[in-house]
Amino acid sequence: MRKERILYIYPTLSSFIKGDAEILSREYEVTHFRVHPTSWHSLLRSLISQLFHLIFNLRKYDIVYIWFADYHSFLPTLFCKRFKKRCYIVAGGYDVCREKKYGYGSFTNPIRGFMTARSIKNCTTVIAVSKNIKQIIRHVFPSTNCVTIYNGVVLKPGKEDVEKESLVLTVSMASTAKNVFIKGIDRIIEVADLMQETKFILIGTERQLLEKIGYKIPDNLQVLGFVDHSHLQEIYSKSKVYCQLSRRESFCLALAEAMLYNCNPVITNIGGMPEVTGKNGFIINEYSAQNCSFVIKKALEAKTNSLGRERILSEFTIETRAEKILNLLESN
């Protein structure tokens, strides 16, 4: 029996996008199409290439599966609606936001917002990565079919008997000044400067970028940039606290990974992060450096327990996500 074919479209090959590729390939024949949005020229070239690929090859596919509603989802959803193909969009957060104050979200740009909105209206189903994102979609697009399927942790659980250090860890991928601000990295720098006796580690953002923006990095904050998964797991294992002070966050996979390694979470009450922590950890409702430092000290003094770890294993594994995605595609 022939496997159904999926056209898998995405802008970057991040860990969660790789995770979905692996899931889809279990039951389907998957063709990858990557769009390059790094500049207007590369984006335009990608969209022209996408147009010709859809014209000559769409008939070969049974399903189109797209990460993020954006420029790159407009043509596929339009073609799929016209030719009655099933089409799914994974909404990751940026694509359904309009934060004018921060200049963040697809809907801060009229053209981008139009293409995003048409994509969401034309697709078969939107897969939201958190209930928070689903709520936004339901509010803006009440007639759109939308389901929540959480991102899944790929990492294996660490050993429970590893001795924790008085260490505060943050993992945030930021490559621009805007992303640094949205991810609350400026807050991490501010709090670390206030807690000189405590060691902080920031992973995923380059020190050179922070210094270029104008931040002075305190001596107790170690900025590591990109690290591979094996090194990241070592740092998760020894960190007592995981701290995420984002201004916007749809889910936060690193938070779930840290909880899997028994880190005490400290988060801002934003987006999908409270859905990840549940009743575990420490939530900051209103940010100030003084308040945050007080909460982090409490988290460092608190005992670690396995409740957070058990929550991740029951709700947020890659296998849980795989089961729900494959059931969704099969049911349609």
From TrEMBL:
Transferase: present as a keyword of the record? Answer: yes
Please give the SUPFAM superfamilies that the UniProt record associates with this protein.
UDP-Glycosyltransferase/glycogen phosphorylase (SSF53756)
Alphabetically ordered keywords of this record: Transferase
| One Gene Ontology term of the molecular function aspect | glycosyltransferase activity
- Enumerate the spans annotated as Glycosyl transferase family domain: 183-303
Any Pfam family matching the protein: Glyco_transf_4
* Residue stretches making up the Glycosyltransferase subfamily 4-like N-terminal domain: 26-154
Show the PANTHER family listed in the entry: GLYCOSYLTRANSFERASE WBBK-RELATED
Query: What's this protein's name?
Result: D-inositol-3-phosphate glycosyltransferase
